[in-house]
């Protein structure tokens, strides 16, 4: 079964929705206009319930099937990124410094397409909870929705989400059971020494030398402290210090990111960072403080639900990879998968710029495939009779 014919019939409508969303990006929890657009469409489709203002601007809509049954959650994120678009397209962002560079305009569109079809046909036994989430890009909107009781309130038994996948054929699908994306944590190291004249370093406690020593030692966590088959990334991305060539500063700041797939590896990194910072502070006679900020947990697909999702995807597209290598990016859908079984799946975006790139654009040809996948997922999981 290829793309559902009825969904293909309103492919042009989905293109119009997606371009409208792309032109009007919103950030973090402030997705009010996006939510308004979503709710207007949902009302027009005739969904049974609309619940607004969840996690500030999130929306959950309910569609009842023909018969009673369990509830499946389908999630799309709505927020954009704080970056300047460089596509030059007619539907480029109209707001300077904001753009949909991660496909969330397409994710929202695919879920709206599925909502329209499911509200028309209702060929399932149970309920669908359509989750339109703000603040995936750093705000942890998925965590807030879970904390506000979305999964319990709507009695959601399993959850699924789609994400754009640049580099794979448009409308193809890929996923993997178990970990598919990493946990992401942030390192902040604040160093305080004794500043002074650059000509008299012996009168100072130089935070720059301490910072350089720490950064070099931090690189050994990956090369010397972790098992090669436990994937790990530790990247120092910022060092801020100093103001002039003849001044040894008093303070230095180091910032970085840690990506892990297991809690044991995460704990090891935290421990080694603490030891390295304390040891180098003593060695260089400075004060140093590590602030290890835990972020999104690893995104872990349920094995059985992932196999089911891949089977559904094969009804839609001939190209489905259900054993793709996991990646070291992160995603706050992880909070929902921590609470309910489900699967996170990618839909191919073709030979486009990469995610978070100023020339990225969602491939509109992927929207009917994604909407069909969501719709068939519900019909297969909640069959009538």
Features:
about 375 residues; alpha/beta; Aminopeptidase; Alpha-Beta Plaits; eight-stranded mixed sheet; four-stranded antiparallel sheet; 11 helices; about 35% helix; about 25% strand
Structural topology:
Blueprint: H1 5-9, H2 11-23, H3 32-45, E1 49-54, E2 58-64, E3 67-77, H4 104-121, E4 125-133, H5 141-147, H6 150-153, E5 156-165, E6 173-174, E7 178-181, E8 183-192, E9 196-197, H7 207-225, E10 232-241, E11 247-248, E12 251-260, H8 263-283, E13 287-294, E14 299-301, H9 303-316, E15 320-321, H10 334-339, E16 342-348, H11 367-381
Parallel strand pairs: 3-4, 3-5, 5-16, 6-15
Antiparallel strand pairs: 1-2, 2-4, 6-16, 7-14, 8-12, 8-13, 9-11, 10-12
Helix pairs in contact: 2-4, 3-4, 4-11, 7-8, 9-11
Quick recap:
With 385 residues, the protein is of the alpha/beta class. It has helices at 5-9, 11-23, 32-45, 104-121, 141-147, 150-153, 207-225, 263-283, 303-316, 334-339, 367-381, and strands at residues 49-54, 58-64, 67-77, 125-133, 156-165, 173-174, 178-181, 183-192, 196-197, 232-241, 247-248, 251-260, 287-294, 299-301, 320-321, 342-348. The protein folds into two domains: 5-180 and 299-381, Aminopeptidase; 183-294, Alpha-Beta Plaits, CATH 3.30.70.
């Amino acid at each position: 079964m290829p793309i559902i014919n009825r969904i293909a019939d309103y492919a042009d409508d989905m293109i119009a929705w997606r371009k409208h969303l792309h032109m009007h990006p919103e950030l973090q929890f402030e997705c009010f206009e996006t939510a308004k657009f979503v709710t207007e469409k949902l009302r027009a489709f005739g969904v049974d319930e609309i619940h607004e203002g969840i996690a500030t601007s999130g929306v959950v809509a309910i569609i009842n099937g023909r018969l009673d049954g369990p509830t499946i959650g389908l999630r799309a994120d709505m927020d954009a990124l704080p970056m300047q678009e460089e596509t030059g397209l007619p539907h480029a962002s109209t707001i300077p410094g904001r753009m949909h560079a991660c496909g969330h305009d397409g994710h929202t569109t695919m879920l709206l397409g599925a909502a329209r079809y499911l509200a028309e046909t209702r060929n399932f036994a149970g309920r669908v909870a359509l989750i339109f989430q703000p603040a995936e890009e750093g705000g942890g909107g998925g965590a807030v929705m879970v904390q506000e009781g979305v999964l319990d309130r709507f009695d959601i038994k399993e959850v699924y989400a789609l994400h754009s996948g640049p580099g794979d054929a448009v409308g193809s699908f890929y996923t993997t059971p178990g970990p598919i994306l990493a946990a992401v944590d942030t390192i902040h190291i604040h160093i305080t020494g004794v500043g002074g004249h650059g000509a008299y370093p012996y009168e100072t406690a130089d935070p720059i030398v301490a910072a350089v020593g720490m950064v070099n030692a931090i690189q050994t966590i990956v090369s010397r402290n972790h098992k090669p088959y436990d994937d790990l990334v530790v990247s120092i991305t910022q060092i801020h210090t100093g103001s002039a060539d003849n001044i040894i500063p008093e303070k230095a700041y180091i910032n970085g990111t840690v990506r892990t797939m297991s809690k044991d590896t995460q704990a090891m990194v935290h421990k080694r960072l603490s030891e390295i910072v304390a040891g180098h502070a003593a060695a260089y006679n400075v004060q140093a403080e590590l602030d290890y900020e835990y972020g999104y947990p690893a995104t872990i697909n349920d094995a059985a639900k992932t196999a089911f999702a891949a089977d559904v995807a094969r009804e839609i597209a001939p190209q489905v990879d259900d054993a793709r290598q996991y990646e070291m990016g992160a995603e706050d859908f992880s909070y929902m998968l921590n609470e309910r079984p489900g699967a996170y799946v990618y839909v191919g975006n073709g030979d486009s710029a990469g995610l978070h790139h100023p020339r990225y654009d969602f491939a509109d040809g992927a929207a009917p495939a994604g909407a069909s996948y969501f719709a068939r997922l519900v019909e297969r999981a909640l069959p009538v009779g």
